[in-house]
Design brief:
Bound molecules: FE2/S2 (inorganic) cluster
Order of helices and strands: EEHHH
CATH topology of one domain: Arc Repressor Mutant, subunit A
Number of strands: 2
Strand content: 5-15%
CATH class of one domain: Mainly Alpha
Strand order of the largest sheet: 1-2
């Protein structure tokens, strides 16, 4: 199945990258080019990361972790 249509990257390629040590979306971006165009592949890639390495805490793509609300300026 294609994970990233923009770059023609399959779930098999993502799993192989995870087997080689990728643990974050950043790793997949650097190795495969995932999420470097439209970014729609991010949620699927995140699911594959968590499926393959459930101990890994994969944050939402491109957004900082939710924390306490920031005061209005
Ligand atoms: S589907 Fe991966 S960058 Fe567009």
């Amino acid at each position: 199945m294609y994970v990233c249509v923009c770059h023609g990257i399959t779930d098999r390629q993502v799993r192989e990258a995870i087997d080689r040590g990728a643990r974050k979306l950043r790793d997949l971006r650097e190795e495969l080019g995932l999420c470097t165009d439209c970014g729609k592949c991010g949620p699927c890639a995140r699911d594959l990361l968590q499926e393959a390495a459930p101990e890994t805490d994969v944050p939402a793509l491109g957004f900082p972790a939710m924390g306490a609300p920031q005061p209005a300026v």
